[in-house]
From TrEMBL:
<keyword id="KW-0560">Oxidoreductase</keyword>
<protein>
    <submittedName>
        <fullName>Tryptophan 2,3-dioxygenase apoenzyme</fullName>
    </submittedName>
</protein>
<dbReference type="GO" id="GO:0019441">
    <property type="term" value="P:L-tryptophan catabolic process to kynurenine"/>
</dbReference>
<dbReference type="InterPro" id="IPR037217">
    <property type="entry name" value="Trp/Indoleamine_2_3_dOase-like"/>
</dbReference>
<dbReference type="GO" id="GO:0004833">
    <property type="term" value="F:L-tryptophan 2,3-dioxygenase activity"/>
</dbReference>
<dbReference type="GO" id="GO:0019442">
    <property type="term" value="P:L-tryptophan catabolic process to acetyl-CoA"/>
</dbReference>
<dbReference type="Pfam" id="PF03301">
    <property type="entry name" value="Trp_dioxygenase"/>
</dbReference>
<dbReference type="InterPro" id="IPR004981">
    <property type="entry name" value="Trp_2_3_dOase"/>
</dbReference>
<dbReference type="GO" id="GO:0046872">
    <property type="term" value="F:metal ion binding"/>
</dbReference>
<dbReference type="GO" id="GO:0020037">
    <property type="term" value="F:heme binding"/>
</dbReference>
<keyword id="KW-0223">Dioxygenase</keyword>
Amino acid sequence: MEIKPEIAERIFALEEKFKNSGQDLASYLDGLLYDRYLTYWDYLSIDTLLSLQKTLTHFPDEKIFISYHQITELYFKLIIHEQKQIIEAEAPDAGFLIEKYNRLNRYFRILTDSFDVMIKGMEREQFLKFRMSLLPASGFQSAQFRMIELYSTPLENLVSFKIREQFSKESSLEDLYENIYWKKGGIDLKTGEKTLTLKQFEKRYTARFLRIASEYKGRTLYHKYQQLPDSVKNNKGLKEALRNFDANVNINWPLMHMGAAYRYLNKDKETIAATGGTNWKEFLPSGFQRVSFFPYLWSEEELEDWGKEWVNHMFNTQKENC
């Protein structure tokens, strides 16, 4: 059989490649000869993926709850993937950064828009019953979301707003982490003690969170922008992309959680406790936390009014629908 010139050229190129790395081309060709054709379901591990939605109760809507949260965690993984590319990029230009932040914003827009699956896509009575089998697990325990925050901004920007002025970049990572804003959501309002949800979360992830905070100290998205040359830093499109990312993560995303919590856990002036015991009315409103990844991109007035307009609109809408 005659070997076409373009095929021979590729074979010679492969032979050179494997020779330079001390490998045997013939063995690799045997592997290709004996290997099965790749299928869609094997490549994506579809059977494994579809076997992961294991419910604890017989309520049909629990499957929706599990599937939605798993999808969310996959998007978080993609977000972290893009964050690391930005951080590791050497001398990135505005075009590269805008494209990456557009991806981050697209992921969060999809997540925010898809939250209707949670807000409108389950029967309230089913949710209030099957949720009791989830104790003390809570969405509060999403480690990947906390990692997104750690890759985005220094720990001093994540300290609880009411005491943030007491800390600075000179404070130890341990002190900053101990006073990080989301821990306040894991405190029992009646006893002042940490909930089991928070204790479990800290035991599982504290060492990892501190390792990330240490490894990326001075290297977060916050620092990456500050270190850019003025010609890139002053790009209007880039500034807008960063501001959108900040608002998507720290205003729009928690706002949608507020909508879901208000629908399922607040009825007829009665507030139902979250599964993990988190004090969600104090923890979720962005106006209470005032977390911003890039505070230098916002005016004092914007930071002072952080998320309030969105929260007021959401509460008024929810009341009208109840």
